[in-house]
Amino acid sequence: MSHCSQTPLQTISCNEKPEDGNDNGIARFIAARPSNVAAKKFFEKEVYQRDWTTLPGRLECLSQTLEAWDAENGSPEMACSLSSDPKESRRLAVTASIMVEANPRFLHGFYMWFCQSLRGRYQKYMGEEWDGEQLISEEDEAKLFQSVQKLGWIRTNGMLQKPLCEALHNTTLTWVKEAISMQFEEKHFEDFQGLKDQLILPWLELLVGPEDIEKDNWRTRLDFTVAECYCLVRTKEIFELVAEFPDSHSAVEELKEVLEITKMHQDMARALKAALIRRLNHPGASTSQIIDMYINVIKVFRELDPSDRLLQVVAEPVRTYLRKRQNTVRCIITSLTDAEMGGDLYEELRRQDARPLEEVQVDSDDEEEPPDMNWQPPPPLNKQRGNFLETGNKSGGGDILSMLVSIYGSKDLFVNEFRLMLADKLLSNLKFNTDQEVHTVELLKLRFGEISMRNVEIMVKDIEDSKRIISNIHTNIKAKQRVIPVAEGREPADPIVDAAIISHIFWPTLQNQQFKPHARIQAQLDQFSTEYGQLKNPRRLVWMNQLGSVQLELDVVEEKPDGAAAIETREFSVAPLLATLISYFEDKDVWTAEELSNETGLAEHIIQKRMAYWINNRVIKQLHGQPVRYEVATREHFMQHDHENAAAMEDDGMEGNAVSVLAQEEEEMEVFESYIVGMLTNLGQLPLSRIHNMLKMYVSGGSDVKYSKTPQQLGVFLQQLCRQEKLECGPDGMYKLFKK
């Protein structure tokens, strides 16, 4: 505990004149003023820099000195008037002298004391034991409260206002951070309101007095401080808050309420925008992760700001980055249609209140009602003040799907990508069951329009018709086979060929690497073709031999647990080429790669690559030496440990995607080339931008091939035509036909 020892101050009256009028005399005169003497005594030996436990006692001495001056004839300092009130004049004189004598760290010491005092009360409030050094006892704390009130340092504009406000803000920020950091599943703001009412306000009343609490509007200031601290904590972890949505929905709702108090919408938006650029827009993040995060950003900021004005600013870097990724459209379509993945987009497509994309409002500058004479544009975001929720487009900027489609500005890209993916899915559907695809197409028609889905509907109908045609053809084949087998005493064999019969002009370009099937397989295909020709005369089938799947049962060498070799029957589902290759080994046991190449019409390196599958599955063994020879694997090979894998490349037995993306692009480019040649023939020479705009105008309307290239992609294509000597580009960037 600190004690105050009263000693008389040796001073001179302000009315007294210095003996000499020089600077030294004036300096001695000023130094001898009572307020300056009191200030020097307060900082005597600079103990305040080393031990704050003496502060309450020294403040008490200073306040008692000031009270003594306020008594009648208490001090000659009253002659130096700094205010119409003599008491206020003396207080101001002492305060000024203290600030002159003070060390630069003097006020910071008060800040530290306020922080420690609040911390001690907080731990007592929470029922925790004090884990730090008790700088000031409760008795000295009360003494200090009374002293700063008497000295007037805690009043409005007093010298302790700044350290007090900083201590309140930083201490509250620490408490809020400890309580809610990365905690998103529950609401916490009401707890801090209770902490404010039960701890901070009573502490502040003791410090500034009940009257000044109301006079200086401390309740409102504390409400804002608590809300501001809450927003600052959430701003630093806004990326995690968005990433964990909808699990963080409670925290988002609470944040919306607190933002109504602080109006810190722009700070929140800037923080998330910077975090998205730093943590999302880089090659290490997968496209599906970026899309999921973008969807969460839309949902969260529509909770915080239904006008979508902040969302546009926050999401623009992500939209720009997604536009540059090659697989963005495919990831979006996959999420929309894949029931196994599920997710937000899958549910978005099945919304009951979904509207066609043409009707969805995606431009925030559009308004539902036409403007009248009193219409005013919304202020720019950087000039916005107050609540964002009161301005801008109240209907928002469209649903999630429309915002994803608006990344590219056209739905044609998405329709075409779905068409490519659907082609692969339909052709791999061995049961010809299209119920799921029909349901998906109907949902997409509601969003993208019936005209956009015309080709897709025909593709699905082709598969449905194929199922009916196959049934009819199989019935006819069985009826014709029944006559001969009965005479010979045998049952007719079931037809083994199914076929997906497609209208090729409505389908994407498919893989079509032709080869010659084995004679037994070709006989089955010819029989199916003959029956189809009779059923659908005059139509004829053109087989795409590379596509499809063949079910086989083969005897292969397997290793038993005891290490012995055994022949077991296994089922394989392989591509038609692999079925053809293995069929030749029914004719003889050993074939060379050259012989298989001659039989199938394919290059030897393709044969060697595809034979790797049968070698890996111990059906075929590659013999050593040249030329490359293959032999049916036997138990003897395994027993002699002569079953090493001679294949350099692995093969899963199936072809890749049925759709040839490269061939599809080449087909589109041929169409674009014809338009470009026609333009330059009629108009002479054109810049890239003009060619780009004309292609968008003419190729996109009523054509099966839609122009959706960027100017950069078009520039690459035009340069390719220049290298092929079909076009030439001048130094002014004008393109024209090449003159031979």
DSSP, total strands: 8
Helix share, percent:
40-55%
What is the spatial order of strands in the main beta sheet? 3-5-4
Overall shape: elongated
- DSSP summary: helix tally: 30
Q: Uncertain segments of ≥5 residues (pLDDT<50)?
A: 5-18, 23-27, 361-368, 381-396, 642-649
The fraction of residues in strands falls at 5-15%
| Multimeric status of the protein | single chain
N-to-C span: 105 Å
Biggest sheet: strands, sense, closure? 3 strands, antiparallel
* Overall average residue pLDDT: 77
Rg for CA atoms: 43 Å
Which structural category do the helix and sheet elements fall into? mainly alpha
Quick take:
It holds the Pfam family Cullin_AB. With about 750 residues, the protein is mostly helical.
Task: Give the topology.
Layout: H1 23-31, H2 34-42, H3 55-70, H4 86-101, H5 106-125, H6 138-151, H7 161-180, H8 189-208, H9 210-215, H10 218-236, H11 238-243, H12 249-262, H13 265-279, H14 287-304, H15 309-324, H16 328-337, H17 343-349, H18 400-405, H19 412-427, H20 435-448, H21 454-481, H22 483-488, H23 519-535, E1 550-559, E2 565-574, H24 576-583, E3 590-592, H25 593-600, H26 604-616, E4 620-623, E5 629-632, H27 635-639, H28 661-683, E6 685-687, H29 688-698, H30 711-723, E7 727-729, E8 734-737
Task: Explain this structure.
It is a single chain. The model is unreliable at 5-18, 23-27, 361-368, 381-396 and 642-649 (pLDDT under 50). The strands form three sheets. This protein has a three-stranded antiparallel sheet. Strands 6-8-7 form a three-stranded antiparallel sheet. A hairpin with a 5-residue loop joins β4 and β5 (629-632). It has 740 residues and is mostly helical. It has helices at residues 23-31, 34-42, 55-70, 86-101, 106-125, 138-151, 161-180, 189-208, 210-215, 218-236, 238-243, 249-262, 265-279, 287-304, 309-324, 328-337, 343-349, 400-405, 412-427, 435-448, 454-481, 483-488, 519-535, 576-583, 593-600, 604-616, 635-639, 661-683, 688-698, 711-723, and strands at residues 550-559, 565-574, 590-592, 620-623, 629-632, 685-687, 727-729, 734-737. α5 (106-125) runs parallel beside α7 (161-180), α8 (189-208) packs across α10 (218-236) and α16 crosses α17. Helix content is 54%, strand content 6%. It starts with 22 loop residues before the first helix and ends with a strand.
